[in-house]
Write a structure and sequence with these properties.
With 360 residues, the chain is an alpha/beta fold. The chain has two domains: 25-134 and 265-328, D-Maltodextrin-Binding Protein, domain 2; 137-264 and 336-359, Periplasmic binding protein-like II (D-Maltodextrin-Binding Protein, domain 2). 42% of the residues lie in helices and 18% in strands. Strands 1, 2, 3, 4, 5, 6, 7, 8, 9 and 10 form a ten-stranded mixed sheet that branches. α2 (33-51) packs antiparallel against α14 and α8 crosses α10. The longest helix is centred in the N-terminal third of the chain and has 21 residues, at 2-22. It is globular. Residues 1-21 have low confidence and may be disordered.
Length: 360
């Protein structure tokens, strides 16, 4: 009996070694900083604990250049990439990313609703993309400016009489032209219809010109919160996650203006020539289920891309504050999704015109 017990223990030990040897390492690429930290806490660590799969987190600065280079060389080392919807569409068209059957390969909602019906409307615009979070580019303002008067709409950003002071805007055409039209009275649903006409383009630049002398143009995302903190600007555009951090972690006297927020979608794309596709798909199914997307909101103020995740959003993991009011999805009816197809067709023209306009 002693010999049998000794052999059994050895056999079990060997099985464990074989299992460990067969465990897969996944190279998961994302944006770094607080965002990757939120993914690690909500997805990576729980999945590693559950399966034994090791997840190597790799940071990048976006775009498709590196993915394209790997694909063309045939030496694909990335197993999974966090991309914007625009890059997912482009990468899918170029054959870099694997098509995904959302209902067959992703988890249904807890009540059985198919994944294709549970992801927010307008997020499944590429067959190679699994939505993860909704973030936005939005305005914030100094809450102690203007004697306590509070801006409530996009038109207030363009109202220098009632809301004087510098505005910090990103130095690019996209978003600024849409905001100018919204401030000029164009309904959110009609922005691209108007911008698609010559008169609409002229109208957007004309409206933008009304605040041009009071604009500080920024190119780095950390700049607008600093400009407001230093009281060099009273309004600023930026990613809602940065504003959340400034307001709730740094206790800056800022407030959000959700009107006209530009919603965007981030999610996963699987390299078509990756070496661990089967294991990657298991991870993506786990990482985009209802619970995991709700869990990510404990660490960062980005809205989960699933309808079923919304009611499960709880408190911030360290601050202890209710995260519901800080989700851009809560104010989705006040914002719009960028029309990437329109910008793909008109971006070069608008960027050239914007650059020339800045010099006038």
């Amino acid at each position: 009996m002693k010999k049998m017990l000794k052999y059994s223990t050895f056999a079990i030990s060997m099985l464990g070694m074989v299992s460990a040897a067969q465990a897969v390492d996944l190279n998961v690429v994302s944006w770094g900083g607080a965002y990757t930290a939120s993914q690690m806490n909500a997805y990576h660590k729980p999945y590693a604990k559950k399966t034994g799969v090791k997840i190597n987190s790799i940071d990048y600065s976006g775009g498709l250049a590196e993915m394209r280079a790997q694909t063309e060389s045939g030496k694909v080392t990335w197993d999974l990439v966090d991309v914007t919807l625009a890059d997912a569409i482009k990468g899918c068209d170029e054959g870099m990313f694997r098509p995904i059957d959302i209902d067959k390969e992703m988890a249904a909602a807890p009540d059985g609703t198919p994944a294709s019906k549970d992801f927010l409307e307008g997020t499944l615009l590429s067959e190679c993309f699994v939505p993860q979070i909704i973030y936005s580019t939005a305005f914030a303002y100094r809450a102690d400016a203007w004697g306590g008067k509070k801006p409530t709409k996009m038109a207030d950003v363009f109202d220098l009489k009632n809301f004087p002071g510098k505005r910090a805007l990103q130095k690019k055409a996209i978003n600024n032209l849409e905001w100018a039209l919204i401030a000029d009275g164009v309904p959110l649903s009609k922005v691209y219809d108007v911008l698609d006409t010559d008169e609409g383009k002229d109208r957007a630049f004309k409206k933008l010109a009304t605040i041009k002398k009071d604009v500080i143009w920024w190119t780095e995302g950390a700049i607008p919160p600093q400009l407001l903190a230093d009281e060099e600007a009273v309004f600023g555009t930026g990613y809602n996650g940065r504003w959340f951090s400034a307001i709730n972690e740094e206790k800056q006297p800022f407030a959000m203006l959700w009107d006209g927020q530009v919603l965007d979608i981030d999610g996963w794309a699987v390299p078509v020539k990756g070496k661990n596709v089967a294991e990657v798909m298991k991870f993506v199914k786990f990482a985009t289920d209802t619970q995991r997307l709700a869990d990510q909101a404990k660490y960062i103020s980005y809205g989960p891309a699933r309808l079923s995740s919304g009611p499960m959003v709880s408190k911030h993991a360290t601050l202890g504050i209710d995260m519901g009011p800080h989700m851009p999805t809560k104010y989705a009816d006040q914002g719009f999704l960028t029309d990437f197809a329109w910008w793909a067709d008109n971006g070069d023209e608008m960027n050239e015109r914007f650059a020339a306009w800045l010099l006038q």
